[in-house]
Design brief:
Length: 421
């Protein structure tokens, strides 16, 4: 037997319903905010991710599924969606359209991570990106929309944390201060952090190693080094969130694991960390990404929400309306003629979206009744030779444990009425 690769999951029918629900709620939210759907390839040229996510990030260093295709091109299964959105934005010259351009996407992403609860090697993100506006109200819109999406899903208590990672003006000043702080500690840092220190010191705050966390606890934080433009922007984003009545926490340690961020970064957590301890959604502003990928100097801001993680939360809070619909009619048949009548009845009922079914294994009446019971059918209609001759059939009400002999129009009426309820 061949099992699925480590870090992948099969989503079985019961859970697929939750996925469909998450995706439908997301599409509905995007419609309300004017975001259009972009469907993108799941593989891109590797260079796209090197130039956007960043060569020093864990994603690029350790986690990408990269291979050479038969034409000897280096191809990567996308580890995230923003880079592809910006690539597509440029390829389709969307900068010539009225700005900002608001886009959303949904699909599988791939990262070679250590699998654990809520962390997979193939996972799904739904995300949105607003490209072309520097205005802090655009950051606020992305954040408000994120929280609105979770509220619509029934996750009204998501915890929002926020920070600013500055820009090309203030970051070098902070970088130098952080480097100077880290230098005397270098030998005590983990190997990864020793590398980060030289290439991108901000990333030391993202280290999971407890020793590194303790050593860097007093290190200079980027949000204490913001230039006045970045500080004003960050103040305005918070003012917009206040005016929309959103709760958030400024977390100076939040730096994010991707290099393209400038200014605003944020993450959302589910309060019960036993269900999911990592962020359920995360995003931020990327003012240099469009230019770095060969376009004009255009800013962007966006977010990606983990679908697997949203589904984990929904599973922990089951809702009746998200369960599979109830089987309204099960038709038990004896003999070929009865089977034929059943098929034609089912065709009519199913065309009206009434969930109905029959036996497909030529089993005894007793076995068919057992199946109907197990499937929690509301009614069972019994068709045998005698019933066909009389034109009257037994309709058993499985909830009330009663039964009646009725003709076909009477039965159809009861079934249709029952499915309306
Ligand atoms: P990210 O923080 O790498 O950001 O991922 C966003 C979300 O995707 C996470 O909060 C989590 O819910 C989900 N996620 C990430 N990795 C995994 C995994 N291995 N298993 C399950 N879920 C996972 C980005 O990807 C950025 N592109 C977000 C963004 C959009 N920034 C601006 N625009």
């Amino acid at each position: 037997m061949i099992n699925g690769p480590r870090g992948t999951v099969d989503i079985l029918p019961e859970e697929s319903r939750l996925w469909r629900h998450v995706e439908a709620v997301f599409a509905e939210t995007c419609d309300a905010y004017g975001y259009g759907e972009l469907r993108l390839p799941i593989f891109e040229h590797s260079e796209l991710f090197l130039r956007s996510v960043g060569e020093t990030t864990d994603i690029v260093q350790k986690e990408m599924y990269t291979f050479s295709d038969r034409g000897h091109r280096s191809i990567t299964l996308r580890p995230e969606g923003t880079a592809g959105v910006v690539r597509s934005f440029l390829e389709h010259k969307m900068q010539n359209l009225p700005l900002p351009i608001k886009l959303y996407y949904n699909g599988p992403m791939f990262r070679y991570e250590r699998p654990e609860a809520g962390r997979f090697r193939q996972f799904s993100q739904i995300g949105m990106e607003g490209i072309g506006s520097h205005d802090p109200s655009m950051d606020a819109e992305i954040i408000i929309m994120t929280m609105d999406f979770y509220r619509r899903l029934g996750i009204a208590n998501g915890q929002l944390i926020l920070n600013s990672v500055g820009c090309e003006v203030c970051r070098p000043v902070h970088r130098q201060a952080l480097y100077d702080f880290l230098l005397p500690l270098k030998d005590q840092l983990c190997n990864d952090c020793q590398n980060r220190m030289e290439k991108n010191p901000l990333r030391v705050f993202d280290c999971k190693n407890e020793n590194c966390q303790a050593l860097t606890a007093e290190g200079p934080r980027v949000s204490d080094y913001l230039c006045s433009d970045c500080q004003d922007h960050f103040d305005d984003v918070q003012a917009y969130l206040d005016s929309a009545g959103l709760e958030y926490q400024h977390d100076k340690d939040l730096v994010r694991g991707l290099d393209y961020y400038t200014r605003t970064v944020f993450e959302v957590y589910y309060p019960d960390r036993n269900i999911i301890s990592s962020a359920i959604g995360a995003g931020g502003r990327y003012n240099k990404l469009v230019e770095e990928l060969g376009g004009k100097d255009l800013p962007g801001v966006g977010v990606a929400l983990g679908v697997d993680r949203a589904v984990l939360v929904l599973k922990a809070n089951p809702k009746e309306e998200l369960q599979a619909p109830r089987l309204i009619l099960y038709i038990a048949t004896m003999g070929k003629k009865a089977g034929m009548l059943a098929v034609s009845i089912l065709k009519d009922l199913r065309a009206k979206n009434i969930y109905s079914d029959k036996d497909y294994l030529n089993r005894s009446l007793k076995a068919q009744m057992k199946s109907a019971n197990r499937a929690n059918a509301r009614y069972v209609m019994i068709i045998g030779q005698e019933e066909i001759e009389k034109g009257r059939y037994t309709l058993r009400d499985m909830d009330n444990q009663t039964q009646n002999e009725l003709d076909l129009p009477e039965i159809m009426k009861i079934i249709e009425e029952s499915s309306d309820n």
